[in-house]
Design goal:
heterotetramer; A mainly alpha; B alpha+beta; C alpha/beta; D mainly alpha; C: alpha/beta; Beta Polymerase, domain 2; five-stranded mixed beta sheet; two-stranded antiparallel sheet; 9 strands; D: mainly alpha; globular
Chain lengths: ~170, ~375, ~200, ~425
């Protein structure tokens, strides 16, 4: 368990770093997807298969592909090599970021009693429970999100209809 | 009809206020699975839509005309086989016709009949395989093509029997044909012709009603009537645009005035019309063949005097209705055994003039079938 | 046979070549004549079937003529060379034809008027005549080489065209080609001989 | 010792083998993993070889040809010859290509193709990975193949490949919707994402348990989802969408040879090409396996009991025989379609997915819901069946008519006088 966890988190961290650092946009996206897959692996480790499946379906299958599609439409896939962002005081920034992160995490770290109790046995992440939760306490939120997404979809359709065609229709 | 020439259309790339797309330029050919030989199209694509298309050819150019001007008149006959290598019989006939017109040679009755039979058989096999290739361009993994090839084999067997060669027949001569038909040939030919409508029925039931073929061919690559005339389009492509112009009816060359056949005409001028006109023309060809086979007389088949002759200074333009369109030969003689000028008017070459007009604004997949429906053979385009 | 008299009457500079039954049209009038032929209701020559360039070398003919005094006298008849473009026009509307139009120009500076603005079908054929004969078509929208490659310099269909003998490499040159190859690639040809 | 049950023979053998390792739990887990994965990796490439032969022979018969006939009797060794040829071919990578992505693409396609096989129940108690969320895991991992095709198309630095990649993304993303939505109906009716439960739901247990041999036999057939109106429509939608999802004819636009050479495969050669080829077939098996599971009763077939056994669950013909029979039957239909139909055009393809399959699949969900709650007479859906069927048929007709423009029609041709 620990070994798998270490490997997956290493992959996740490295690919996330690469996604930020790589200058080639497509490579960056591909590493981002590797990160998503590693995250899905972590979900499986937590016995949350459904969440893992959704993670891959939504982030790798849809969001990542969408990003790639958007990149395909841009002119330059590879960043300009000559143009480097000059970083001054990178170490200071790193230290600051670490400090902020630690401050945020400190209460959680302090409160946790070590060694950790195994989480797996206490929760039952079945799809049925998830569905019931969505349907009972969170119905309104779900409906609102659904409405919002439908509106977005309709908006996309409206934008996608090219004005060229409508002119032709007017003529005929 | 007092318009000036119909200029090539320009396709306007849609560019909204901030939505700019790049044009993708691809070079389709000369090695591409769908270009029917070493043909190249320089295509610019806006997404999948064709915004510019320039045909490029010459990869098979061997200066056929120059070769012909350095050999005797008869010496060019085998070279004409290599023009449109699908239809060597009609190529032979067109050349023989031009020379006969220039030198004033007469053709014996039986030879005229044999020429008609050979030309119509050529038309059958050319149209059948063209429709097959067209469906292949549509992505039908070769099934209709192989059915067509099966029928073509029967006809090529007949050619081989009569002339000794399946494709490069070199069969026609000035003032007739090279040799008489072997015994039994006519009976076999009758059998092939009688069997052909069954194949046609099968072919038509399988293809003409197919929803995918309908939706992909109809209203794709429309060639307007005026443009077709102005751009000198000939053959099935012209008739698909609704112009009644068949040289077999107009010039009545050979003995075509003796046969009863009709000229099918399209109305829209799209790929589907070009496809259907070919199917209908095959039916008419079968009609002509049946009449010719029933009435072919006995007699000599060639004029032995017209071998290596030296025509008087003259010029002539002879043309026939080849399967792909008007195939013409323009000959100028200066009194020597070699032609002073020998020019081929290749139908495939000129029919390509309107390729860009038909493809603009269509999808890249349509460009492929538009090219397929024009029916080109690169041996003839490049010469 | 189509009656050509009305054309000759309307356009006096147009000559009739009786041997070929063709109209010889001066370049300045070519577009006008073609347009008139296309649109005139009696002709309706809407279809340009064939366009061909024709190259004729200058001929020097020496004939010996016996003079009355018994001596031979050489008479040199010079026929100048010419470059022609021949158009065969037909009518799809009235189904008659052909009318042959010729534009004659010099071999040294072959320039004719393009009929592509009237007949779109002449586009590729005029390009071909340009490519193979070097005839300049004035008013052609897209006069480029069509069959030869763009870098090609010469005009191969001209009667005085000499094939450059280093033009094509043959893996095993023989006969005349071998002789040519020797001149160009002395080492290469000997090595292939040694190899064979 | 329990009497031998042909159906469960393999399962029993596995358990027997594992029973020796009871004292070494870690080894037992490893062996169990191997026992469930190695057969997948061994069997499906074998199926792939058989299918390539079947496809070549079948296409040849459709096209009046003989097909492979030089390698072994009936050309049966042709797949081996092809494989050897592929392995020995030079692996050419274009100079300007993105080498890493070019190399990874076949791998990225291959891994999910094999992984999704593990959620398919091949027989009772014979499922490599019995997960609670089998169906959604299948769709999730299946969507990764889009990424692989994109990687192949983009990394080749070839415009045809790029076009193929673009087409593949657009097509696979679009067809995923009707595919998943037609599957959703089944999930809704079963109330579970678990593939084993979906198969079990399609068996009429009271019939199987009865003493009548005929009823027992039918008990594993009559309950298949395909025999319900929503199941029938769903099966057809699923099958058509799966054709597009695995780039089979007539939706093989990403590798349309007459237009864009071979699409994303243009710059692949040698073993990488073979991997692509195999992954596509394995994906085809997987998706056919899923449609078998969802609509055709999975491994259930005529319930014939072995004469020596009284166990109502014992079967003379093992379930995986039926499973593979159904899967291959669907494969054959795909081959048949490939030999018959021309290819669609890009806009037609998209229109077909969004304007026809998607509304039909959504309609199907409603019909499924209606069928579920419609009153029954002795458990027989006397109301749900006819009305559901009628509604599905009407919506098929309506959506079809709405989509069919007035443009395509048979034409009448005239002759010149």
């Amino acid at each position: 368990m620990i070994i798998t966890f270490s490997i997956l988190s290493a992959i996740a961290v490295i690919s996330a770093l690469l996604a930020v650092r790589l200058r080639n946009l497509v490579h960056a996206t591909l590493t981002l997807m590797a990160f998503f897959v590693a995250l899905a692996g972590l979900f499986i480790l937590l016995m949350a298969e459904f969440l893992a499946a959704v993670q891959i379906l939504v982030y790798v299958g849809a969001v990542g592909i969408l990003i790639l599609f958007a990149i395909m439409l841009t002119q330059q896939v590879t960043g300009n090599v000559k143009e480097h962002i000059e970083a001054h005081g990178a170490l200071w920034g790193l230290a600051g970021a670490t400090a902020v992160l630690l401050t945020l995490l400190l209460p959680a770290i302090l409160k946790t009693a070590l060694p950790l109790q195994p989480v797996v046995e206490t929760i039952d992440p079945s799809v049925r429970a998830l569905g019931l939760n969505l349907m009972a306490p969170y119905t309104i939120a779900l409906q609102v999100i659904a409405l919002l997404l439908t509106a977005a979809l309709l908006g996309a359709v409206v934008i996608a209809i090219s004005p060229e065609k409508s002119e032709e229709e007017k003529k005929s | 009809m007092s318009t000036e020439t119909i200029a090539p259309r320009e396709y306007q790339i849609y560019s909204g206020d901030d939505l700019r797309t790049n044009v993708l330029e691809i070079s389709m050919g000369p090695q591409h699975p769908s270009t029917h030989g070493v043909f190249r199209m320089d295509v610019s694509l806006d997404g999948e839509t064709v915004v510019k298309l320039k045909p490029v050819f010459g990869y098979l150019h061997r200066n056929h005309e120059k070769i012909a001007e350095t050999t005797s008149y008869l010496g060019s006959m085998p070279y004409t086989d290599r023009l449109d290598y699908f239809c060597s019989m009609t190529n032979n006939w067109a050349y023989a016709l031009a020379v006969e017109k220039m030198a004033g040679l007469a053709v014996p009755e039986r030879a005229e009949y044999i020429r008609v039979i050979m030309a119509e058989l050529t038309r059958l096999q050319n149209h059948a395989s063209l429709v097959g290739f067209l469906t292949n361009d549509l992505g039908a993994s070769g099934t209709p093509l192989l059915y067509a090839i099966r029928e073509r084999e029967h006809i090529l067997d007949l050619f081989e029997w009569a002339s000794g060669a399946r494709m490069m027949c070199n069969y026609m001569r000035f003032g007739g044909v090279r040799n008489d038909l072997p015994s039994g040939w006519l009976a076999q030919c009758k059998k092939v012709v009688d069997d052909f409508p069954a194949f046609m029925d099968e072919f038509e039931t399988l293809l003409t009603g197919n929803e995918i073929i309908l939706s992909r061919c109809q209203n794709v690559g429309v060639l307007p009537r005026d443009l077709a005339i102005n751009a000198s389009i000939t053959g099935p492509c012209l008739r698909a645009s609704g112009v009644d112009y068949d040289l077999r009816k107009v010039d009545k060359y050979g003995i075509y005035d003796r046969f009863d056949f009709k000229v099918p005409l399209g109305s829209v001028g799209d790929c589907y019309d070009r496809f259907m006109i070919r199917l209908l023309e095959m039916r008419e060809s079968v009609k002509i063949l049946k009449q010719a086979l029933a009435t072919i007389p006995e007699g000599p088949v060639n004029d032995s005097k017209a071998r290596n002759f030296r025509p008087k200074p003259a010029e002539a333009y002879g043309r026939i209705e080849g399967p792909k369109g008007e195939l013409g030969f323009y000959l100028v003689s200066d009194g020597t055994p070699k032609p002073h000028r020998y020019h081929v008017r290749p139908p495939s070459f000129i029919n390509l003039t309107v390729l860009e007009d038909m493809c603009l604004g269509q999808k890249i997949a349509d460009a492929v079938i538009v090219l397929g429906s024009i029916d080109i053979v690169l041996g003839e385009v490049d010469r | 046979m189509i009656d050509l008299a009305p054309i000759l009457a309307k356009f006096p500079p147009v000559k009739h070549d009786a041997a070929a039954n063709a109209l010889i049209v001066p370049q300045a009038l070519a577009l006008e004549v073609a347009k008139w032929l296309r649109d005139d209701p009696a002709y309706r020559m809407d279809y340009a079937s064939n366009v061909a360039g024709v190259d004729t070398l200058p001929v020097e003919k020496k004939t010996k003529v016996k003079q009355p005094d018994g001596t031979d006298k050489e008479i040199v008849t010079k026929k100048p060379g010419s470059m022609e473009v021949v158009y065969h026009l037909y009518s799809m509307a009235l189904k008659h034809g052909p009318i042959t139009i010729k534009q004659v120009t010099t071999r040294e500076n072959p320039v004719v008027t393009s009929l592509t603005p009237i007949y779109r079908g002449a586009e590729f054929q005029e390009r071909e005549a340009f490519d193979l004969y070097g005839i300049q078509f004035e008013g052609h929208p897209d006069l480029r080489r069509i069959l030869m490659w763009d870098e090609f310099k010469d005009f191969p269909m001209r009667k005085d065209y000499v094939e450059p003998d280093d033009y094509e490499y043959e893996p095993t040159p023989h006969d005349a080609v071998l002789a040519k190859a020797k001149a160009h690639y002395p080492k290469a040809s000997t090595s292939t001989e040694a190899a064979s | 010792m329990t009497p031998i049950n042909p159906d469960q023979l393999i399962v029993q053998l596995t358990q027997w083998a594992l029973s020796f390792l009871d004292s070494y739990p870690l080894v037992a887990v490893l062996v169990a993993i191997l026992l469930s994965t190695v057969p997948l990796i061994a069997v499906f490439p074998g199926c792939f070889a058989i299918t390539t032969w079947l496809e070549r022979k079948g296409l040849a018969r459709i096209q009046n040809r003989i097909g492979p006939n030089r390698t072994g009797p009936l050309g049966i060794l042709q797949p081996a010859a092809d494989g050897i040829k592929m392995l020995l071919k030079e692996d050419i990578v274009p100079k300007t290509s993105d080498r890493l992505a070019h190399f990874l693409a076949p791998v990225v396609l291959m891994v999910p193709a094999f992984t999704i096989l593990s959620v398919l129940p091949f027989n009772r108690n014979m499922i490599p990975a019995a997960v609670d969320t089998g169906v959604i895991l299948f769709f999730a991992l299946g969507s990764v193949s889009t990424l692989a095709v994109f990687m192949a198309g983009w990394s080749s630095r070839n415009k045809y490949s790029l076009l193929g990649g673009m087409r593949a993304i657009a097509q696979m993303v679009s067809y995923e919707l009707p595919l998943v939505l037609s599957g959703v109906t089944v999930i809704m009716m079963t109330g579970s994402l678990d593939t084993t439960k979906i198969v079990a739901q399609q068996q009429l247990s009271e019939w199987i348990q009865s003493s009548n041999a005929g009823l027992q036999c039918l008990g594993q057939i009559i309950g298949w989802n395909v025999f319900t109106p929503w199941g029938f429509a769903g099966f057809l939608i699923f099958f058509v969408a799966s054709l597009a999802e695995i780039n089979r004819c007539p939706f093989d636009l990403p590798e349309a040879d007459s237009e864009i050479v071979a699409g994303h495969l243009t710059e692949y050669s040698g073993f990488k090409y073979a991997l692509f080829f195999m992954s596509e077939y394995v994906s085809a098996f997987a998706i056919n396996g899923l449609s078998t599971t969802l609509f055709l009763g999975g491994w259930s077939g005529p319930n014939i009991r072995p004469p020596w056994s009284d166990d109502p669950n014992a079967l003379l013909i093992p379930g995986f025989v039926w499973f593979f029979a159904k899967m291959f039957a669907l494969m054959l239909v795909m081959i048949w379609i490939r030999g018959t139909l021309p290819r669609l055009r890009v806009d037609h393809l998209m229109g077909f997915a969004w304007k026809f399959l998607l509304p039909l699949a959504i309609m199907n969900i409603f019909v499924g819901g209606f069928y579920y709650y419609a009153p029954r007479w002795h458990g027989i859906p006397v109301v749900g069946w006819p009305i559901g069927f009628l509604v599905m048929y009407l919506s098929y007709e309506c959506i079809g008519r709405l989509n069919r423009g007035p443009k395509t029609a048979q034409r009448v041709y005239h002759y010149a006088s």
